[in-house]
Amino acid sequence: MPRMSFHPAPLLALALVAGAPAGAVTPVLPATQLASLRAQLPQRAALAQAHLSSIAPQLNLGAGAGLTPRRVSTSPQGRTVVRFQQTHQGLKVWGGEAIAHVEAGGQVKALTQGLKAGVTVATTTPQLSPDQAIAAALRNLGAKGPLKGNPKAELVVFPTRFTSGFATRFDGDKGHFVWDREMSLPAPRPTEPYRLAYEVRTFLANRQDGHREMCYVVDALTGTLLRKWDDVQRDAPAQGTGSSFFRGQVALETTKAEDGTYALRSPSRGSVVNPIFAANGYMVPGLATCYGAIDLNLGMLGWDFYKGKATNAWGDGNQMPFPYDFTYVPDPMDWSRWWGGMKLEFSGDGMTAWAEGALTPAGETAAVDCHYGLSTTWDFYKNVFSRDGIDDAGTSTFGVVHYIEASMDGLYPMLDNAFWSNGAFGMFFGEGTFGTPWASWSYGLKTLTEVDITAHEMTHGVTYSTAGLIYDAQSGGINEATSDIFGKMTQAYAAGGGTGSTIPDFAQGDLGAWEVARNCVSQGSMPLRYMYKPSLDGISADGWFDGIDMIDVHFSSGPVNRFFTFLASGASSSASSPVYSPYYPAGLAGIGNDKAARIYYKALTEYMTPDTDFEAAREATVSAAQDLFGAGSAEEAAVLKAWSAVNVGLAPGQAPRVKVTFPVTHGSGSFIDDNAQPQGILSKVQFFPTRADVRIAVNVENTANKAVNYTTPIWTFNNISTAGTIKPDGTWTTPNWNYYEDLLSVRATSQADPAQFAWTWVLLVELDADLDNEVDAIDLGSTAMSWYGPKPFETPLYRSRIAGGGDWDLVFFNESFTNGFPVK
């Protein structure tokens, strides 16, 4: 991605952070001066816009380009940050954004790496109406139940490089990645770099479909679906604890109604009514805690307030019994119904239901933790960063406990999961699986309302309202790590009393403090993530490696989590320590939670953009450290060292490292790269036939020793077998498998520096068309002859068909045959 470019205003000098004493945070402005600056937000936004207009010719935006302010805020140090939505002939350019910094003295600096260059479309007149675009999206959605609210369609200019194709997902049962058929869109990528399209957003929360917020980009000329994604930012596996028995008695701000009853609503936390509440006629602002409920009349999943309580004492400190009957089997002949059934309670009129026990004292306990956690997180952002709620505009939010989801047998209380919903501007927390028959092979969590989890989910909202980090690849990993980071900082803040404007440090040497959800797991179970050494979970990454873009965002968050842990609390020089880094073996001293969090918050809110990757995040935190502590400060040096310790960039004085990469085999413009989601996810995947002698390609830089050791792929389903041995020169006899669709991971580790490795996928394709248990040139001919025969989809290669055959099968056959039988 393009790097940050800075453009000085023609008549204004850039403000330099100079004169700040070493190690001192740039001071917060006096309240009166800050209030004066915030009262001038429109004028300062206009100043930023004038500056961007003056440098527009340098930005290569194309004719008809525009930049519209979409969010303006002023930091406690007096910097106004204006985020501009890029437009083309008045239409939003999807993903296009610029940032302008207006310092207290009026100096302006522009960050334009998020802008899309050379935007042009053949026409801005759609052939489809918004209703037709919505209809196209709904056909793909295939909702079984009613929608929650009307879908929304907005006409946009869409960069076609973001066109979806065949998506992948991690299959926990198999232990590796497989094709995600539901999220795949096998439509060819348009030839134009930009296309007129509708962005359509839907909202499902019903018994049949569960909670989904599917978003679509629909070609406004043809009705073709160009991209789809689920906007619910789930934490699967998710985190949390059950109730306040982990922290004893806590103070809660509630409300008292005219009838003398109490409700779990905090009126001081939120001055603007939550949008989904306003849409339903509830015009009272404030942070609210709710419980999951079902409207049986409409079949809609929803929630209701904890209200109408005669006393202002909530919960009893105990975990609510899991609301499920594990012995109930409605149909013994139906294997899909053997799990049992959810226990429900009903309203007097029988039109509303909720999880059994949700309104008991034990059920209230989860609500206590939720209300405490969300309130503490709101206060954390307000007191430490002077932030007025999630969007810095005071918009109220809410949390739902005992939430109910749809399952194959009807309903279940959400299991080890919690999520932030952009559509609802709120958070949902599951029961956890503690005490269930399947706890031994799931995470076995208690109710997901511990403070590091409530803060994690609320931070997803802060990220959405600021940098808007796209939820896949490296930006998705940064998104997840950001929530982990501020989840832990909120936990530290709560442990220090939950007051004041500074963040206390964790106890020296307490690595458990950096374990995500450590309070919610059962004895002997692992936490969900180890921020200080992510690889302890067996999946997450400790540092950058070639291929990290291809793993789930919860696992690619590892390097950023470890970076922050090192920055705050340091790294060891002892190779036996879990906080040792082979990339920076000398170790480093931490700068403390408070300084580290301020640097990261400023980077997130003032420098990061939707497609920020690890390198750009490094630049953002360096710039933030310079802003706060001065160029050349010890804090800036600590940032550089901490990034170096996770293999992102070099610290001053470090020599270039060994670098191992797999070559791009399907580069930009290729069918596979253009039709994968996200683009680039399959660019380094190598395709081979089964039962063939092949050679895997790899690159090794910055060392004369080019040798690598390969990790042999293992097919784990039913413990079948390994996939043979890959020799150090890359030669490999592929196994005798009638095997397709699952991606096998291959890791190449440098012999010169074992800390450096690359990871990719290989795909084995069955080419034995004549079923003689051999793969040879005759098979290619047999395939070609059968492809468009009288019954083209009844070919012997039925295992090779995906999505009904077509271009993808042809490309896979061609790639694998060429790799198996290269021209000499």
Structure description:
The longest helix is centred in the middle third of the chain and has 25 residues, at 361-385. This protein has 824 residues and is α+β, with helices and mostly antiparallel strands. Mean pLDDT is 82; it is low at 1-24, 235-243, 716-720, 789-796 and 798-804. The strands form 12 sheets. Strands 13, 16, 17, 18, 21, 22, 23, 26 and 27 form a 9-stranded mixed beta sheet that branches. Strands 1, 2, 3, 4, 5, 8, 11 and 12 form an 8-stranded mixed beta sheet that branches. It has a 4-stranded mixed beta sheet with strand order 31-39-38-34. Helix 7 (473-495) packs parallel to helix 9, helix 9 (558-569) packs antiparallel against helix 12 (634-644) and helix 11 runs antiparallel to helix 12. It has 15 helices and 39 strands.
Topology of this protein?
Blueprint: H1 31-39, H2 41-54, E1 65-74, E2 80-88, E3 91-102, E4 108-111, H3 130-141, E5 152-159, E6 167-171, E7 176-180, E8 194-201, E9 204-206, E10 210-212, E11 214-219, E12 225-230, E13 233-235, E14 255-256, E15 262-263, E16 265-266, H4 275-279, E17 287-295, E18 300-305, E19 324-325, E20 341-342, E21 344-346, E22 352-355, H5 361-385, E23 398-401, E24 404-407, E25 410-413, E26 418-421, E27 426-429, H6 451-465, H7 473-495, E28 515-516, E29 529-530, H8 553-556, H9 558-569, H10 593-606, H11 614-629, H12 634-644, E30 659-661, H13 671-674, E31 686-689, E32 693-695, E33 699-701, E34 708-711, E35 714-715, E36 721-722, E37 731-733, E38 744-750, E39 757-765, H14 777-787, H15 807-820
Parallel strand pairs: 3-5, 17-23, 23-27, 31-39
Antiparallel strand pairs: 1-2, 2-3, 3-4, 5-8, 6-7, 8-11, 9-10, 11-12, 13-26, 14-15, 16-17, 17-18, 17-22, 19-20, 21-22, 24-25, 26-27, 28-29, 30-33, 32-37, 34-38, 35-36, 38-39
Helix pairs in contact: 5-6, 6-7, 7-9, 7-10, 9-10, 9-12, 10-11, 11-12
